[in-house]
Structures are given as C-alpha cells and as structure tokens.
Amino acid sequence: QVPLVESGGGLVQAGGSLRLSCAASGDAFIGYTMGWFRQAPGKEREFVAVINWSSSSTSYAVSVKGRFTISRDNAKNTVYLQMNSLKPEDTAVYYCNRHPRPLDAWGQGTLVTVSS
Fold first, then answer.
1. What is the pLDDT of residues 73-110, one digit of tens each?
2. 73 burial type by CB count under 10 A (0-12 exposed, 13-18 middle, 19+ buried)
3. Are the CB atoms for 18 and 9 separated by under 8 Å?
C-alpha cells in the first residue's frame, strides 16, 4: 500500500487557485504532524506548510504565507493545501509527508504549473 498519494495539481494562470489533496494510509497519518513540500525544476525539495494532528497549529514558508492554507480531515486521513493567488514561481511538484521526520517513501507528488 502506497502510504501517501497526492492529487489536485494542474495548469493554472497566475492569480488562480488550486486545492491539493494528500490521501495517507493510517499508519502514515494518524497522530502525526503533516507537511506539504515542493520541488521546482533544478532545485531541492523545500518546505511549504505544516499542520499538527489537532489542526490547532499551522506554519508556512515565507514565500507562501497569506496565499496558501493547509488543513486536514483526520476522519479521511487526508491533508489539503488550498493555494490562492498563484505565481509562476509556485510551479513545482508538490508532496506531502510527515513533519519534521518524513517517511523514507515519498509519494509521486502532484505537478502544479503556473503560467504567467
């Protein structure tokens, strides 16, 4: 069973919105703080946002703060990333994983492409 499956990416114009989803297996999700990460072409993977188990605490990278919102539905073992006011520099493959100690097995990610 693949522990993490991301979806919801696509091609969007600058200023547009997308909502990403990450469906996780119970073992990968229950009780854990979860994060979203992204990797742009030619760059290293970077942190985007994090949410704790109870959803009482969230944190964001400076580059996305005020535009992205992370949330989770523990009944569905799913974490979401609402992305608004997208910019071309947000173009990347987006991944979810535990935070701060990610699973070794990352999902396939979901590609977000923002055109100018």
1. 999 999 999 999 999 999 999 999 999 999 999 999 99
2. exposed
3. yes
